[in-house]
Design a protein that fits this description.
CATH superfamily of the largest domain: Aspartate carbamoyltransferase regulatory subunit, N-terminal domain
Number of helices: 4
Strand content: 25-35%
Helix content: 10-25%
Number of strands: 11
CATH topology of the largest domain: Alpha-Beta Plaits
Bound molecules: zinc ion
Largest sheet: 5 strands, antiparallel
Order of helices and strands: HEHEEHEEEEHEEEE
Distance between the termini: 40 Å
CATH architecture of the largest domain: 2-Layer Sandwich
Strand order of the largest sheet: 2-3-1-4-5
């Protein structure tokens, strides 16, 4: 662990990017993989993606950092990111300069991002009823974010039980 921290300080400074976004202070460590999945970024993405997992952080202990070249803020679903990594900082980079910094926040409600897994839910029976969930936060940690279906009242874990609408 100590060696890790020393290494982080000395040499783990990832290249600056020219254009794109940086998402910093992603916790818990390892969540960056889920973020990439939610952003639908995989090996077919045509630009460089830098992923730092389990980096030591003075404030957070351990965190992840993502740098994605040539992606625009408008390409991102901030609601989805807020559900997944509230508290993380989204930094927009243009020509090596920070032009905007946004702290991601958990939304109160979310609509259209997920399908309700409840078997007898009205959203399953009627396609024109769009699934909508109340976001339940506890302890302010991202790990404990759950969604309650406003139609059938069932409670589900974000990203564990829910299927994303593609
Ligand atoms: Zn439901």
């Amino acid at each position: 662990m100590e060696n890790d921290e020393l290494a982080d300080k000395k040499q783990l400074i990832v290249n600056k990017i020219d254009n794109g976004i940086v998402i910093d202070h992603i916790t818990p460590a390892g969540t960056a993989f889920l973020v990439l999945q939610a952003l639908k970024i995989d090996n077919h993405y045509p630009h460089s993606v830098f992923v730092a997992i389990n980096v030591s952080s003075k404030r957070l202990g351990r965190k992840d950092v993502l740098k994605i070249r040539n992606i625009k803020e408008s390409d991102l679903n901030l609601e989805m990111l807020g559900l997944l990594i509230a508290g993380s900082n989204l930094v927009v980079i243009e020509d090596y300069k920070i032009i905007r910094k946004v702290r991601l926040e958990t939304p109160e409600f979310t609509r259209g991002l997920f399908q309700c897994p409840g078997h007898s839910c009205i959203t399953k029976l009627h396609e024109d009823v769009e699934p909508e969930f109340k976001v339940i936060k506890s302890n302010g940690t991202n790990e404990s974010v759950k969604l309650r279906c406003i139609y059938c009242d069932k409670i589900f874990d974000v990203f564990q039980t829910l299927t994303m609408v593609s």
